């Protein structure tokens, strides 16, 4: 409130209660964080300064900076991991909890609001191939559900107690679904469709793959709409898309952190999907404290999502990275700070 509309616009317009405070911020270029003298556990914080001299999504540039001892951590992708392995670097892996999925626009008049059309797209999509060949990052899991594999159920992992339905990849069936969609929509040909996505190399690669997949197998004219992250969010929120590659990282360790995104009333439901069974399951899970009641409700949501294809899960993300041997105590967690430098020390 004290900062008004300027809150978070610059380093000086932020408020802090964490271990570090942002003291310098050159937008899109660099950042500097310094130890917060008012942090409740400041005596346990060893680092005085964290410098982020380079801000870039270019994984090759990051790896080169790491090799030159300019940075202590560098995330890798399907290409830079080859360089790291060739250089015999120690490669670390972490299941990030990131879910990527295709959001369909369910607004009136949209082709993607037709269930048979969505069935056609799903029938040509193989999530295992997508995870292995397109994402190509070790540890990446195929997208089978909006309830991720790490989530706990009643007595075991949720997905062990309530296995996710698995669709069959069937191009012939996909073409039949597409023919039905044409009849239901009363059209002879499908119009060009916009696939909105981020302009980062990794996401753009995914968009290009999906463009080719749907074009080659179904004859659809998919136009890629690559945007910077902020603009992608704005266009998705405004409904300016037919499909969009969306994503989510968990805020807390419970299926609801993902599942509630797709409730009809949720502000993150950019596609405006509405399903009575799904909504009922979410309301039940939100009101109950009984684990079995809640997990049964989430299971009904999982099935409703599969049946109606509100969104199409793509993959569960994994992070691979290299870390300087002298940097000790960097921790990672699916929820919370990732990475967490609060108790990091630099060994001599």
Offer a quick outline of the entry.
Helix content is 33%, strand content 20%.
Give a count of the beta strands, DSSP E runs of length 2 or more: 12
CATH architecture descriptor of the largest domain: Roll
Helix content: 25-40%
Q: Please state the CA-atom Rg, rounded to the nearest Å.
A: 22 Å
Total domain count: 2
CATH C-level class of the largest domain is: Alpha Beta
Please summarize the sheet with the most strands: 7 strands, mixed
Instruction: Supply the number of helical segments.
Output: 11
CATH superfamily of the largest domain: Dipeptide-binding Protein, Domain 3
Q: Uncertain spans, ≥5 residues at pLDDT below 50? A: none
Strand content: 15-25%
Query: What number is the mean pLDDT?
Result: 96
- From the spread of the alpha carbons, the general shape counts as globular
The SS-based structural class is alpha+beta
Distance between the termini: 43 Å
């Amino acid at each position: 409130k004290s900062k008004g509309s300027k809150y978070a616009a610059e380093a000086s317009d932020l408020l802090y209660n964490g271990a570090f405070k942002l003291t310098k911020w050159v937008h899109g270029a660099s950042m500097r964080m310094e130890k917060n003298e008012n942090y409740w556990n400041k005596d346990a914080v060893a680092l005085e300064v964290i410098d982020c001299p380079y801000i870039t999504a270019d994984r090759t540039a990051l790896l080169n900076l790491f090799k030159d001892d300019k940075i202590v951590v560098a995330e890798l992708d399907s290409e830079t991991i080859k360089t790291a392995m060739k250089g015999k670097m120690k490669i670390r892996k972490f299941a990030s909890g990131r879910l990527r999925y295709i959001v369909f626009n369910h607004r009136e008049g949209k082709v993607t609001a037709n269930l048979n059309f969505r069935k056609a797209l799903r029938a040509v999509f193989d999530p295992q191939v997508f995870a292995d060949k397109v994402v190509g990052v070790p540890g990446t899991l195929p997208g089978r559900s909006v309830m991720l594999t790490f989530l706990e159920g009643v007595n075991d992992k949720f997905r062990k107690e309530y296995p996710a339905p698995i669709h069959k990849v069937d191009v012939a069936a996909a073409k039949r679904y597409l023919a039905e969609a044409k009849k239901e929509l009363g059209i002879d040909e499908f119009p060009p469709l916009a696939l909105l996505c981020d302009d980062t190399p990794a996401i753009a690669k995914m968009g290009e793959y999906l463009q080719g997949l749907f074009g080659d197998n179904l004859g659809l004219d998919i136009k890629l709409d690559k945007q910077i992250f902020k603009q992608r969010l704005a266009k998705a929120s405004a409904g300016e898309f037919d499909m969009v590659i969306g994503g989510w990282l968990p805020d807390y360790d419970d299926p609801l952190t993902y599942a509630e995104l797709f409730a009809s009333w949720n502000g993150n439901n950019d596609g405006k999907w509405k399903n009575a069974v799904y909504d009922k399951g979410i309301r039940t899970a939100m009101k109950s404290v009984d684990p079995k009641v809640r997990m049964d409700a989430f299971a009904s949501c999982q099935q409703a999502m599969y049946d109606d294809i509100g969104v199409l899960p793509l993959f569960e993300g994994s992070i691979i990275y290299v870390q300087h041997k002298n940097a000790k105590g960097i921790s990672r967690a699916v929820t919370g700070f990732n990475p967490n430098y609060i108790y990091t020390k630099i060994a001599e």
